[in-house]
Structures are given as C-alpha cells and as structure tokens.
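dumping this here before i forget
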Amino acid sequence: MLAVSYQYTFQGQTYQVGEFSTDGISPPNALMLRLLKATVTDPRIPLWDLMMKNVYSLGAFQVNREDFRLELLYNNPTTGVDLNYIPKPPIDQQPLLQTLGLDRLDQQGAPNPDGSFDFVDNAATLGGTINTQNGRIFFPVLEPFGSYLNRALIGPNPGSPIQDTLVRKNIVFQQLYDSTKTAAENLPELNRFKFRGSFKSASSDVISLNSVNIPQGSVSVTAGGVKLIENQDYTVDYNLGRVKILNQGILESGTPINVSLESNSLFSIQTKTLAGARFDYKVNKDLVLGGTIMNLYERPLTQKVNVGDEPIANTIVGLDANWKNESGFITRLVDKLPFFDTKETSNIDASGEAAYLIPGHSKAIGNAGTSYIDDFEGSVSTIDMRTQSQWFWHLRHKARPATSSLKASTSTICALASSAP
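structure:
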C-alpha cells in the first residue's frame, strides 16, 4: 500500500493531513496517514475513479528503442481476422494507434501521424507514450478502450449510424475499467483488443527454467543473496517451468536474480576419483614385501540415480611378497638326469599376492544407498484450481438413474480436469 502525510500553508495558516513520526507518536500507537493506494483493488472504492486506467505493461524492463515495433489490433467478430483498425465509421479509415492517441507524431517529432507508434520516453515523469525503465505503455487518453473509444465512435456527426447504442455496446470494452480483471476476462465478445510487436530489453519478469513438470516447492529464487518468498515475490508455473517475478522493486533495481531447482531427470553423469598408493619393504636381499591400496569414488550430480548406475566408493587392499634365493641342490638334482651336465647356479623365485575388496557407495545417495526405479514425478501434471484460465465448462447431458449421482459427479470432475492444457 501507499500512504502519505503532509503539511501545506494557505493564506498564512498551516494545515496538516495525517500524522508525522515527530508528532510524538510511539509504538504501539500507529501513524494515521492519507491512503493513496490500498492492497485491495476494488472498483467500488472512491480512489478507483481517480485512476487514469491508461497504463499497460509489456512485461519487460530497460526496453531498447532500437527495433521497437508495436501494433494495436482488433479482432473482427464477423471474420475472426485481426485488424489494425475498427471496421466501423467514422474511425474505419485510420489505424487504432492513431484513434487512441499513440500515433500523433512522425519520425522527426512533427505533429504528423505516420502509422507508427510514437516512441516518446519518460511518460511517467515528463509525459509521453512509454516508460522504458519498467516497460509500460502510456495512452495519452483516459480509458482508451472504454469511454474514449465510445466518443470516437460517435464522431463529430450526431446523425451518424454509429449512434446506435447497440453497435457501440458490442465494441466498447467499458467493463475493462469499471469491473475486476476476472469479470472482464469473462466477456470474450468484448475482449478483442491486443498488442503485437517486438522489442529488445535488458531484463524480463519471466524466467524460463528450461525444464517441465518441476516438483512442487523445489524452486528457490534469490536476489542479491536474499531468498525471495514464493507467491509474494515470485510465482512458479511448475508445468511449463517458468518463474514470474512479482516484486517490481527487484526488477527495477537491476539486482541479479538466481534461480535453482530440482530436476525430475535421473542423471547417470557423475564425477570419478581414483586414488592409490604402493608400498615396498625390503626385509633382506632375498625377501621383499609390498602393499597396495586403491580407492575409486564416484559422485553423482543429483541424489537421484537409476538402478544400475549407483555411484560406488570401493576400496581394494592388496599384499604381495617376492622371495629369491640361489640353490645348489637343484643344480645337483638336474645333473643326475640323463644327458644333462650343468655347472650353473640355480635360482628359486617365489611370489604371492592377496587382495580384498571393501565395497561402498557415495554418501550423496544417503547412508542406505538409495537408487530409483522411477520416482514418477515426471508423470505428474499439477492443475491449479486457482488458475481460472485453465478451466473450461463442458456441458454433457446424459440420463442417469438417481442412485448414480456419485458416479455422475466423478465424471464431471474428470471432464473438467481433462479440459485443462
């Protein structure tokens, strides 16, 4: 909300609206202020009539003037084709941009409409048609698709056929300004105006996560190291994998935003570390003892791994011995064989090895070593009942006995759920 207290002097006398903190107000007492903007938008409150209702957001920030293009279209209910004008006299000979005041100048700034959007920046402070800092379009008229369009359709000639109230009632979208957003969206016969174009911007309020069917609550968003609150600072479309930043102050300040999430994919990519050591001990000139130890450690990227791809942490311990000695006995024994006569010294070599494997697993998958056949998160499609645009009524007429009312209710629920995208 936005509230203010102020003082002013008129004819030598000072007046004050609201209370200041210097007026001796201390907790638990609260300051009394003049409300400018409440937390609840209600057309019935008196502040509603003070709003211009002529500002529309592009959903982008730091919009670049280069290659900016904007069109204002009207969907013709007769043909279903989008037109850049309304096919009703006396405004059927000029584009909607010109009719609603967004095209009054040429490229040099002279008062000569040229069919293109007038890119005049700093509309919020200096007057114009766009505020590039927060990506908002400012119509220079009050209620452009409502009362202003109604007056444009009447035209300068009172005897014009467009005087027909019924004709204007089917074009003018006055409910856009005197009703709530939900009520206005339920009037598709009037909701026929749209923006179309292209632009370049430094930042956007929608961040794509490049992943779908994200587990609920697995997205974490931080701005400048401070963790943001879901549904207060941002919202998440878990089905499409998109984060929408709601806190306009963060976007306008240019604070870096980091988004982390848990993916439903089961990764088998993992880092591997192999370490080993070799030891030799010479007991004497004939006997040498040795030992070897090796460890192979695998660490997965996520805690979810498939069966058969479990990361191991195996250790192998090995011992070996080598013995070598000269033996005259073997020489004499060989000399006793027929046709052999040798005087060379015989050598005896003996070696032995033993190894033991100590199996293990990476601590990243828990102390018990959990692996997944399928966690089925990727097969879950969450339908939020609070999102009205995802639900549509399907009327089905089928005779059923009175005793099957529970089955009829179940069928209706299934039909509604299946109609969601």
